[in-house]
Amino acid sequence: MDQPPTPKRLDSFSERTCWVCFATEEDEPGSDWTCPCMCRGATKWVHQVCLQQWIDEKQKGSSSIDVSCPQCQYPYQILYPSASPFLVCYEYLNRAITFSAPMILAGLTASSIYWVSFTYGIAVATVSLGRERSIAFFGNPESSILALTLPLLPWAVLSVKLVRLEVQALKFWYRFISPALYSLAKRIPILKSMATGHNPQKKFMAAPVAVLPFLSRCLLGTFSLPLIASTIGYALSYILKSQSSLRRTLLGGSIYLLLSYIAKISIEHHRGRLVGASPPTMATDYNFP
User: pTM of the entire structure?
Assistant: First the structure.
C-alpha cells in the first residue's frame, strides 16, 4: 500500500525575499537574484534590478559616494565599466559644478542685493540733495565713508515697516496710556462716572496678516518712499518758498509718514480687537481714544 506523500516543510530562512520590494521567488520567478553583503537568511537576497535602483537613489548621481548594506553595514563592491578620458573629465567637472553652484548662487544673490541697495541709496541722495549737490557729495573724498552706508538705507526703512509701528503704538496705548487715563479719570469728579465701566486691563490684539502680500507691500512702500517724499516736498515748495532740496524732501517725507501712520493706526484699530482680563462692571464700556 502506497504511503501518502509527506508535505514539504517550508523553511522561511531559505526562501528568497527581496528586502527592497519584498517580492519572493514565487512572485517573480524569472528575476535575477544576488547576495552582495554578509547578511544571512532571507534578508541576504535582493533583486539585481532593485539593488541597482536603490544604489542609484543613495548616490544621487555621484558615483564617488560609498553605499553600504543597511543591515550589516558591509560596503558594496560596485564595479563600473572603464570610461574614456573625456567622460572622466566630464565627471570631475560635473562634481566641481555641483559643489560650487550653491556658493556661486549665494554670491550672485548677495551682489545683486548690494547693488540694488546701493542704487537705492544713490537715488535717495540724488532726490534729497539735488543733482548738483549729489555730484559734489559723491566726488568729495571725505564723503566716501558716508557713501558706504547708503546700501543700509533701504534695509533701515524696510525694518521700520516690518515692525509695524501702528500695531506697537496701539499696544503701547492700551498697556500704559489707557490705564493712566483711567486712573486720572477716577480722581476727577466730572470724569468718574465715565470711567466706571472702563476695563483698564484690556490689551490690543492685532489682526493677522498674510505674509506674502505684507512683504510685497513693504518692499513697494520702501522703494516708492523717496519719490513720494520728493513729490510732496516739491508741491509744498510753492507754499513755503524753500529752495533747499533736502528740506523739501525731509518735509514731504515727514508729512507723508505722519498722515500714513495716522491712517494705519485708525485702520489697524478697526481691524484688531481688544482682549480684557476681566469683564467690565457696566453694560457700556467706555474706551479712551
Answer: 0.55
